[in-house]
Structure formats: C-alpha cells, structure tokens
Specification:
The complex is a heterotrimer of chains A (294), B (144) and C (186). Chain A has 294 residues and is an alpha/beta fold. Chain A is 50% helix and 10% strand. Chain A has two domains: 2-122, Glutathione S-transferase Yfyf (Class Pi), Chain A, domain 2 (Up-down Bundle); 140-281, Rossmann fold (3-Layer(aba) Sandwich). Chain A has helices spanning 10-13, 17-29, 47-51, 53-70, 79-94, 96-106, 122-127, 130-136, 170-177, 196-199, 201-217, 228-236, 238-245, 256-263, 282-293, and strands at 2-6, 32-36, 74-76, 119-121, 145-149, 181-182, 222-225, 253-255. In chain A, helix 2 packs across helix 14 and helix 4 packs across helix 6 (96-106). The chains are: A alpha/beta (294), B alpha/beta (144), C mainly alpha (186). Bound molecules: iron/sulfur cluster (2 copies). Residues 35-38, 46, 70-76, 86-87, 90 of chain C line the site of one iron/sulfur cluster.
C-alpha cells in the first residue's frame, strides 16, 4: 500500500474542506494512505517570498523535515503549497549553505532537513495509476463534460526538469478514467488571478471571467480544479464577475477528488458536495443520486 | 604603527557604502566593498582583512547572519572582527514592532543600527581592530 | 565619490542566489508581456520593466506598480527564450520595496503580504478571516461590502473557520523564526 505524509495546508482546514474530505475518502478507496503530517505549519503562500526568502524556505523546510522524520514522501493537494514545498526541497538540496542555515533554525524544533524525500501534488499521485482509478470507478460519470483546469503552480516553474509544462495531459486522462468527457479547455494553464483577488480585484475578476468564458465556450458542464485558491476564485467570485461585466455565468466548479469520489460511488456528503455555491450540473446530479443508493 | 588597515564592507545599499567608505578612507583605511553576500564571501576567501563591516538584510533575507555564522565556523576567518551595521529593525518593523535586534546566537563583536554617526563608526572600528590584534598577540605568545 | 553600482547591478545583487540569467541578456522579444495574464492591468508590462531595469531607471521602476500586480503564475519564466527568471525578479522587486518602504501608499499588495506574514509568525498558520478584516481598511466602500458578502456566504456554508488555528509546538516555531530574523527579545 502506498503511504504518504499528507500536508493539507491552511485552506483545506475550512475554506476548502470539501477538497480535504474528498481527497481522504478517494485515497482510502484507492488504497493510498494519506497520513496527516502532525503539527504542520503554513507554507508561507506567496506572501513570504515578498518579504524574506530565507524565512519562506525555513517554513517549508520544517514541514519537509517532519515528513523526512516519518520516512514518507510529502503530498500536497494545494498547488501553492505544493510549489513552495517542491521548490524549497530542490533549492535546499542544491544550496548547501542555505540548507545549513535553515537546519540551524530547525534545531529549535529538533528537526533536520536532509533532502531525502520527494514532494508530490495529489493529482500526480492519483493520475499515475489510472488502472486503479478505472477499476474503482463503478459509477462512471458518463456524459459529464469537464474542463480540466490545471492552473499555474502544479506545473510551473519546473521547466528545467524536462517535464511537459506546456501541454500536459494527465488531468484529461484521469477524467477519462472516471468515464467523464474532458473538453478541449484552451486556457487550462492560464492563471486564475490567485491572490490578486484581494490585492488587485479588477485584474483578478477579468482573469476569472476569461476562464469561465472559455470553459463555457468549450462546452463544459463543470470545471474541475486541483487547487483551493483556483476553486474559490472561479466559483465564489462569479457574482462579482457578473456584476462587473454584465455576464451571466453560473458554472459549477468542483475539485477533481469530488468527481473521483462520485465516480467511485462514495456518498456525496463524505465528499463535501453540498457546500458549493453553484449547484452540480444534471449529469453530475445523476451520479450523486446513484451514490445514495450504492 | 603598523601598515594601513584593510577593511571589507558587505552591504547591498550602494549609497550607504559610498558614505561610510569615504569616512573610512579619509581616516586612512583601505576599503573594499562587496554588494552581495556571494561576492562578499569570495572577497573574504581571497584576501586578508583586518575587519568586516556587515549588513544584515541582503539578497534573499537576513543573509548577513548567514555570513556571520559561516565566519564563526571557518578556522582562518574565525578571529576576524565583525561590526554589524543594520537597519533590519526598520526593514522588518511591521513584523516585530519596537523589539530589539538580538543576534545572540552568532558571535559578532559589535552591532550598530543605521544611520551611523561618523565618529562612533571610527571609534568602533579602531577599537575592534586593536582588540583583535591584542588577542592575536596573546595567542601567538601562548603558542611560543 | 559617486557610486559605480548601477540599478541593474543592484537588482542582480538582490537575486544573487537565483538561477536565471541577468536582465542584460534580454533581447526584448516581448514573449513575457505577450504571455502575462496580468499585462493589461500593469502600468508597465514585463518586457518594458526589464528594459527599464537594464537601463538603470531606478526612480521610474520604483514608481511602477506592475510587479505588485504579478500573480506569480510563472508563465513568463517558463517561456522566456533567454532564460530570465522574470517571476523571481518580480519577487525580488517586491522585497526591495518592502525593505525600503518604497511603494505607493494605496497599494493593497504590501499591506496584505505583511499582514499575512505577521499572522503566520504568531500562530504558525494563516487564518482567512483575520486576513479579511485587516486589509478591509485598504478597500473602498463598494469592495468592502462585496468582501463582507463573500465572507458571510463562506461562513454560512461553513467554509470559514470561527477560531484561528495554531500549531502545537508554537514556542519552538517562534524561536526557529528568530534564528532567521534576529529581532525580538531573547
Ligand atoms: S521574454 Fe525574456 S527575452 Fe523576451 S522580452 Fe521578456 S525578458 Fe526579454
Ligand atoms: S509570473 Fe507575473 S509577470 Fe510573469 S506572466 Fe505571471 S503574472 Fe505576468
């Protein structure tokens, strides 16, 4: 059985609880153990790098060191947390002076970073074993057209690691394994505005609008996300987008784990379905009803 | 009196470096400047200095502290006197308002906050170099 | 004695540990501006910002808001044909202005970052409602109402925490931070 140190991140505590619930349930169904990292701290989001990069690395390194102590790779469901932790891991491995200094700080919490583990995004973990996903998808999401929204930080800025950061396909493949139909979502890698929703509302709303428009144009019933920030920006600000641009969007936005859970017949309540602002589309509701019977 | 003393400033603020450099040069010191921690460390490795004037907030963050700690671990550079000149309290004021600077865990000889008054700067520099020389003298004696 | 350190050198010093190429290697191809999703909202687009830095136009660069509008999406960084890490440069500029307190007063970005960081340093976690209220004062009335509405809706759906979370080994955590930022009583 695969076992990971699970780093939920601050958003999943409450704001994105449905992501947390559905991640845990889906993993259980797939025989992947997500053991929550004890006493994890905030990864610093982007804000820390605005102020002090050494401190930002120290924050991430504390989490990495705790996962190392448990001897497990670290899995993050939030793309922001994932990027920070992944970058920190790579950085400290290369810069020995920095690692030494960070370790000096970590001593205060009896921890040590040695760079022995990998950092993974939750969606990568699930997408690498499509056969397992397919086998469990007993309640396929037939007819559900989904826009796979990768966003930014799952892929970028890792261009130096010989990965395909421009045309990834694994999200589509994962949706396919659930019986859903991934649509050709041209802006799937385009930014949701992230923290600009607070610091530059005008810009962020326009970015959200472009994404919603493209999702609608590509015929999607629902947008699937793999990041709490993306989910909240795309879903919770639709009213404001509509007010600002005179549009009429009402696009459901769910976490990919919620869709996975539904396809696996997990009851909606355990997936946090019901806390969304925009109700699921008909093809999804059908699947929801079935889980109640399963 | 021995030959001209050789000083190194590591500080990312060019205007500040210009200022204290001219004060020190007038007082007959030879002064090199490095504007980032990387160049600063390279200079320390390549040349012998009598004193280091060190800033704290540079590059990625409080990298001056990294340098001070690294010096403490270096057999050759361990005894180099270090004068930290910082405005970290101002730079990070929002984070710890009104609290004191406290690099207790690194061995630095002196810490002063910007802006620095010229006379005080010269006094401190002279005293630190003298103390370091006296200490080195004792060590040499003891070895004999 | 005039300084021999140009502004572009100053910025390079700031990024001494970053992996990208120096701004002087920019060939002004415009890929960054073309690919940047925030470009239309920047007073100076990335391509021009880079040229201004390279030309040493410090005051002009400091007066722009564009780097505070960067969303850290890394699109420019992965596409720049000259390997300039533009997103990292934007971080560097943000740091530079925060340390020097040189940013336009009405920008929300710096206040937001500072509030965010303060909260983590105190509790080990970030806490959305605190964040919401502490930047309220920077918003206009209309945005404030919108924000309150959004927060209330999240609250009603049970999606905002009522109490801030904090980590267990907070004392260790705080001491850890003091080893990195040497301020505060010891
Ligand atoms: S993409 Fe790179 S080379 Fe082209 S203008 Fe932007 S910074 Fe310059
Ligand atoms: S990282 Fe910043 S500057 Fe670069 S494309 Fe994204 S928003 Fe624009």
């Amino acid at each position: 059985m695969k076992k990971f140190a699970y780093y939920p991140g601050c958003s999943l505590e409450k704001m994105a609880q449905s992501y947390h619930l559905s991640a845990v349930e889906t993993a259980r169904m797939l025989g992947v153990e997500l053991k929550e990292l004890d006493d994890w701290n905030c990864c610093g989001a982007t804000a820390y790098f605005h102020v002090d990069e050494l401190l930002a690395h120290t924050l991430c390194a504390r989490n990495l060191a705790m996962a190392e102590a448990e001897g497990m790779d670290l899995v993050a469901p939030c793309s922001g947390c994932y990027k920070n932790m992944h970058a920190c891991n790579a950085h400290l491995k290369k810069d020995r002076d920095l690692a030494e200094h960070v370790n000096f700080a970590l001593e205060e919490d009896n921890l040590h970073f040695a760079g022995k583990i990998k950092v993974r995004h939750l969606i990568e973990v699930f997408a690498e074993d499509l056969a397992a996903v397919k086998a469990k998808a007993t309640n396929p999401l037939t007819g559900l057209k989904v826009a796979p929204y990768y966003g930014c930080q799952i892929l970028r800025p890792r261009k130096f690691e010989h990965e395909n950061v421009e045309e990834p396909q694994y999200f589509e493949d994962l949706l396919g394994a659930l019986g859903a139909t991934p649509v050709d979502f041209r802006l799937k890698l385009r930014c949701c505005g992230a923290a600009l929703i607070i610091t530059n509302r005008e810009a962020a709303l326009s970015m959200v609008r472009n994404l919603l428009q493209n999702a609608v144009d590509s015929g999607a019933d629902v947008i699937a996300t793999a990041c709490p920030l993306c989910q909240v920006n795309l879903e919770c600000y639709q009213d404001q987008v509509n007010a600002q641009f005179g549009t009429n969007f009402s696009v459901p936005v769910f976490y990919f784990t919620q869709l996975m859970g539904l396809a696996m017949g997990i009851p909606t309540k355990q997936l946090g379905v019901g806390t969304e602002f925009v109700a699921p589309p008909p093809a999804m509701l059908a699947a929801c009803r079935k889980t109640a019977v399963v | 009196m021995s030959a001209q003393k050789q000083l190194l400033i590591i500080d990312d603020d060019p205007d500040f470096v210009d200022g204290i450099k001219s004060i020190l040069v007038k007082a007959n010191y030879k002064v090199d400047a490095a504007y980032n921690p990387k160049d600063g460390w390279a200079a320390l490795e390549n040349k012998k200095y009598d004193l280091l004037l060190l800033d704290v907030m540079m590059g990625r963050g409080a990298e001056g502290i990294m340098i001070a700690r690294k010096l403490g671990k270096d057999a050759r550079l361990r005894n180099l006197p270090v004068l930290i000149i910082t405005s970290i309290r101002e730079q990070m004021a929002f984070l710890f308002p009104g609290e004191a600077v406290h690099p207790h865990f690194v061995t630095v000889d002196e810490l002063v906050e910007k802006p620095v008054e010229p006379k005080m700067l010269l006094d401190k520099v002279a005293t630190l170099i003298k103390t370091a020389e006296a200490k080195a003298g004792h060590l040499a004696e003891a070895k004999k | 004695m005039a300084t021999t350190v140009t502004f572009s050198r100053e910025i390079a010093n700031l990024l001494h540990a970053a992996g990208g190429e120096p701004v002087s290697s920019c060939m002004q191809c415009g890929t960054c501006s073309g690919t940047c999703p925030v470009s239309d909202f920047m007073d100076v687009r990335p391509q021009r910002l880079i040229r201004m830095i390279d030309a040493g136009l410090k005051d002009q660069v400091m007066a722009t808001r564009s780097f505070w509008y960067c969303a850290s999406c890394y699109q420019c960084t992965v596409r720049c044909p000259r390997g300039i890490d533009i997103a990292e440069l934007m971080y560097g500029l943000k740091r530079y202005t925060i340390w020097k307190k040189q940013y336009p007063e009405d920008l929300i970005g710096p206040a937001f970052s500072e509030t965010f960081v303060k909260n983590i340093v105190r509790t080990g976690r970030s806490y959305e409602p605190v964040l919401a209220t502490s930047y309220f004062f920077t918003l206009g009335l209309k945005e404030m109402l919108q924000e309150a509405q959004g927060a209330t809706m999240l609250m009603l759906k049970g999606r905002l925490p009522v109490l801030p979370a904090r980590i267990k080994r907070l004392e260790n955590f705080k001491r850890m931070i003091k080893r990195i930022i040497p301020i505060g009583d010891e």
